[in-house]
Amino acid sequence: MESDERVAGSSALDLPAISNTGASQPASAADGLRSLRDELHRIAMLTEAIQSKFSADGESRAKRLLHCRPDVQCELSAMASGLAHIDALLDRPKQVGTHVHSKHTSAQGGLTRCGVPSGGGWRIDGHSLGALADLSAALNTIWSRQDRQGVKKTIEITYESPTISHSFGDETRPIHAFLDWARRLGVTVEWQLDGFGMVTLDCSKRVPSAPPAVCGPVADVINKMASQAQRVEIKCGGSPLHHTWRHLLSFPKADELRIEEGDGNPPIQRTVKSIPTWLLEVGQDGNNVRLPAIDTFWGELGLSVDGRAHLPARPRTLTRLLGSLRHLTFVELSSASLPIVYECVSCTSVDKLDRVVLHVGPRMSALPEHISQKLPAVKYLSVEVSDAVMHDDVWRVVEGADALSIVGFVRQLRPHEAELRLGIHDDALASHDYGGIGGDELDEAIVEYGTTWTEALGFQCFQQVMETQHLTHASASCHTIEGEFGEPEFSHADLHLVFVAK
Predict the structure, then answer these.
(1) Cα 229 → chain centroid
(2) pLDDT digits over 152-171, tens only?
(3) In what ranges is there compositional bias, type Polar residues (predicted)?
(4) Residue 408 burial by CB count (10 A; 0-12/13-18/19+): exposed, middle or buried?
(5) DSSP type of residue 387
(6) Please, which contacts does 96-100 make with residues 24 or more away whose CB atoms are closer than 8 Å?
(7) Which pTM value belongs to this model?
């Protein structure tokens, strides 16, 4: 029976799980299975005896066992020359004779004394790649021994949200060194992406000349991570990644694309120019070759205070990218510019969208009076105020004029259903003269006036869309806070409107 050792890491708290199905060659496969079965039975009985004495809430069997009997660790190590814990031995008896996987979360020192490498579970990200050197050093003390020659060795590593940037080649040198060590010892390294499934393309930094893509074994790792990705994020505002990355980065399983402005909310022109053009390639059916399964787009675009911004006429990288996503059903945008929102929705190549979610902020720019782009049919539109586009404002609010501009967008889009949830803070509310009253009387007057004013604003909004939309819900409220001198002051109003197409 072939000897097989495996190190698996599945969470940031797990120690590497090492399994071994026999360090020496048995007389026959059947004899080996019987011998291992008897040994497991003996360990199971010992475990149950100790476990009955330790029933602290929240502790796993392995943790209680290791805390109680340090000598048991050596029993386990002697049994299979590397068994670090016993949970899986008891829970997965069908795996005996093939691979026995197990997990625990502590007793680092005890594992080291038993000859089993200790450390955190092998879950790495861009900030912890140096830990690979510690892993190889720990395993090298065991796997480089003469009695480990010919043993099949496997390490499982979870790569958490890889970020591919202009400095990626330098950042991943520890991976290159680790894979070189694994090759020399005949170790198989199995890479997998973490459960969130995000791969980020960081184009937010400006560089004089973008370096080419990595090559060799590291390139193979990144290619595999891209093939497993469920989400792709592009951080924009700097220089696009070098065109040679197109040979490594295709995302066949990704169904969500995110575009995020870089730090400082760069101008929309810089954001658009930083999107790699090699992501725009389409097949004969017009669908994106590198992002063929995207059905959800999430974007932060035009978050700057200047809400008058439009997408640049050239390059049309963003609109071409959105137009190449032929399976798009959901669009979510955060923006301070309604023209940018409108252009993003209008450039999609699909006939209909299930949902459009819009996050807005103060000083929204209105749409031009005459616009003629073809728009997809939208089943549901949601608009709400977002912290992402709040600038320096304290409240999650817009002004009355912003609300009317937003409803102008609803009029152009003509969704089957539209829901607006807006916090309102307007000078007409904040500066109203209440004639010198105070206390509870002032509080009631502010609430009454603010609610009436907001209801009137809601009616103005409805008037803009009444030719094509029914108003199915409308509510308004007003809120106060305690001012500097203990008197109530206007805080903000809330406006909630729901429209349904006629």
Answers:
(1) 11
(2) 888 989 999 999 999 999 99
(3) 18-27
(4) buried
(5) G
(6) 96/21, 96/33, 96/36, 96/37, 96/40, 97/1, 97/21, 97/29, 97/32, 97/33, 97/36, 98/21, 99/4, 99/6, 99/19, 99/21, 100/19, 100/20, 100/21
(7) 0.75
